[in-house]
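Record 1 of the preview.
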Amino acid sequence: MLLPPDHPRRIALNDEVHARPPEPLRAPCRLSYVALVSPPERRDEEWRAVGALCERFGVATPPHALNRYTADLGRFRMIFERHTEFARYTFIAPSSDDTPFAEPAIAEVPAEWLAALPGEVIVATHVALVRDGEEVPDHEVAARYFGGNQLIGSTIAGGAATALTDLRVHGDGFGRLLVADRALTSRQAGRMIQRLLEIDTYRLMALLALPIAQEMSPFLTTCERELTDIATALVGASESDEPLLLDRLTALEGAIASRGSESHFRFGAAAAYYELVQRRIAELREDRLRGLQKFHEFIERRLAPAMNTCRSIGERQDLLSSRVARATQLLSTRVDVNRERQNQAVLRSMNHRAALQLRLQSTVEGLSIAAVTYYVVGLVGYAAKALSSVGIAVNAEIAMGISIPIVAAIMALGIRSIHRLIAKQRGTVPEGNWNG
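->
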C-alpha cells in the first residue's frame, strides 16, 4: 500500500523512545561511569575524543556525531551519551565475584585519553554486578567494599536483586555501587543499573541549584530592605525627592533582573532533574533490607529540603520583582501626575502671556492706525493745497477733516481682513472685536 509522504521528522520522533536503551548486562561484570558537565558547544570535542579512542583500538566511528554511541573495544565496551548539560561515558568489562572493585573497568582505558576529556566531573562511580551468594551481614559488606561507611540500599526489581552504596566519593575519586543479581535478566540488569546511575547523576545536577539559592538569600534580603526603605521614603517624599527614588528603584529592579536571569534557568533545571530522580527511584520497585534506609528515604531526606529551598528562593525572587515593579509603576504614576500638574501651570502661564501679548498687539495696532491715518491725512492736505495752487478751489483743512474718518475706517477694515486671512490659514475664525 502506498501512503502519503512522511512528515519530515516522523522517523526521528518515532525513534526518540529508543534513544537511550539500557546495555544488556550479565553478572559478574564491572562498570565505570563518568558524567562530565560541559556546554553543547563542546560536543565536537567530545565526539573527537570518542573517535580517537575508537581509532586507538582499531574500531571505526560513525561519520557524524550522535547523542549515543556504543563500541566494543575488545577488552571493554564503551557507551557515550550526550545530554543537554552533560555527557556521560560508561565502560564495561568482565569481572570476578571475588574482588569486584579491585580492578575497575576504567583501568582498561588509556589514562592520558581520560584526563583530556572535555568538561568537569560531576559523577564518577564504579559499579560491581555480582552473583548473589550467601547472605553477608551489612557491616561486613561495608568494611570490605565501602571503607566501613554507613550503607543505604534495598532489594530492587521486585526482589530480583540487591543494591548497596554509601553515596560517598572514595580516595580514587569514584563512588561505589554494588548490585547482587538474584534473578535478573540481562536487559533487566542493564535497566536497573542505568536507573541507579541516573538517580545519582540527576541528584547532583539538581543540587547545582542549591549553592545559587544559598547565595541568593542574603542578596534578596538586602533588596527587600532597600525596597522597604524606598517605600517608607515614598510616603513623605516631595517632588524634588521623586527622581532620586525612581533612580533607586530602577537600579534595584535592574539588579534583581540581572541575578534572576542567572538563576531562573538553574532553578527550572533543578525542578526537572528532581522530577527525574523521583521517577527513577519509583522505577526501582524497592523493598526494605533490614537495618538499611532505602534509596528513596535517604535521598529524599536531603534532596527534598534542598529543592524546597530552591523553589522558595525562586518564588521569593519573583515576588520581590513584582513588588519592585509595582512600586516603580506607582512612583512613575506619581511623577507623571506631578509633571502633568506642572505642564498645566506652564500652559496657564502661556495663556496669560498670550492674552497680554494680544492686548499689547491690539494697542500697537490702534496706534498704528492713528499713525497711518495721520500721515495719510497729511498727504490729503498736501494734495488739497496743490489743487488750490492750480486754480481749483479746495479748502485744505476741510478736506483733511473729512478724510480722517474715511482713512481710519479703511485702515481698520484692512487690518481686520488680514486677521481673518490668518485665522482661516490656522483653521480658526476670529471672534469678538474689530481687531480680531
